[in-house]
Amino acid sequence: MIELSGVAKSFVLHNQGGAVIPVMAGADLSVAPGECVALTGASGAGKSTLMRMIYGNYRANAGRIMVGGTDVASAEPREIIALRREVLGYVSQFLRVVPRVPTLDVVAEPLLALGVAEESARARAAELLARLNIPERLWPLSPTTFSGGEQQRVNIARGFAHDYPALLLDEPTASLDPVNRAVVLELIEAAKARGAAIVGIFHDAEARARVCDREEDVSVFTPQAAA
Ligand SMILES: Nc1ncnc2c1ncn2[C@@H]1O[C@H](COP(=O)(O)OP(=O)(O)OP(=O)(O)O)[C@@H](O)[C@H]1O
């Protein structure tokens, strides 16, 4: 479902004399439906960079990044937008939303974008918010003023609203209490059981061991290691 081959990335620092920072070379990764792979490696090894390349936020300098039938490395922006709507979900660490949009709508929005009827989209959003213990009195409010943990749970509810065939998870349990952490682990397990291919960064070693089938150490893809 997610297949990377020969992926390379360098950053060019235009505001610092055009310095070139090679971060990754020859990165290969294969994630099958129903599989969860954890990206590991020391801080700065390139875990986030690899996730952002899979999502199409950073453009790879070389290689192929196949997600479903789309090569993200060479896709047009409109193809990436369609891929993100239908195939590839992303739970980032921080919630970024348009101010003043109620929480319920923030969570229902990915389903509405797919043409799901408003009533069922809102029902699914309500189910996820309840499961993630966001009090119902908060649902009509914008999540911009919510606590860090509340915002993360809204973000997770939004990321799991649609049954994406592929999912990227950036520290999904980072600022959660044990009860909500357990809910998130169950959501991940359910996504795997329905066949989602998942790539994640989990600093929570216990969570990683529970939901991930294997680990991929991205340090082996540093340009020095690949040379
Ligand atoms: N936008 C950017 N511009 C320039 N350099 C960048 C950019 N993003 C990442 N880098 C560099 O790429 C390298 C890898 O960073 P990345 O954030 O992917 O590491 P990481 O493994 O996710 O680290 P951490 O565990 O600390 O989050 C770092 O040296 C970083 O400075």
How does this structure look, described?
The chain has one domain: Rossmann fold (3-Layer(aba) Sandwich), CATH 3.40.50. Helix 3 packs parallel to helix 5 (148-161). The model has no long low-confidence stretch (mean pLDDT 94). With 227 residues, it is an alpha/beta fold. The chain has helices at residues 47-55, 77-86, 103-113, 118-131, 148-161, 178-193, 205-211, 223-226; strands spanning 2-13, 19-31, 36-40, 62-67, 70-71, 88-91, 166-170, 197-201, 214-217. The chain has eight helices and nine strands. The strands form two sheets. The protein has a five-stranded parallel β-sheet with strand order 6-7-8-3-9, sandwiched between helices. The chain has a four-stranded antiparallel β-sheet with strand order 2-1-4-5, with helices on one face. The site of adenosine-5'-triphosphate has 11 residues, from strand 2 and helix 1.
Average pLDDT level: 94
CATH architecture tag: 3-Layer(aba) Sandwich
**Strand neighbour order, sheet with most strands:** 6-7-8-3-9
Please provide the count of β strands: 9
**Assembly context of the chains:** single chain
Radius of gyration: 18 Å
Q: How many H/I helical runs?
A: 8
- How many domains is the backbone divided into? 1
Question: What fold name goes in the CATH topology slot?
Answer: Rossmann fold
| SSE pattern, N- to C-terminal | EEEHEEHEHHHEHEHEH
**Structural class by secondary-structure content:** alpha/beta
Shape: globular
Low-confidence runs: none
End-to-end C-alpha gap: 28 Å
Main beta-sheet strand count, sense and barrel state: 5 strands, parallel
Helical percent range? 25-40%
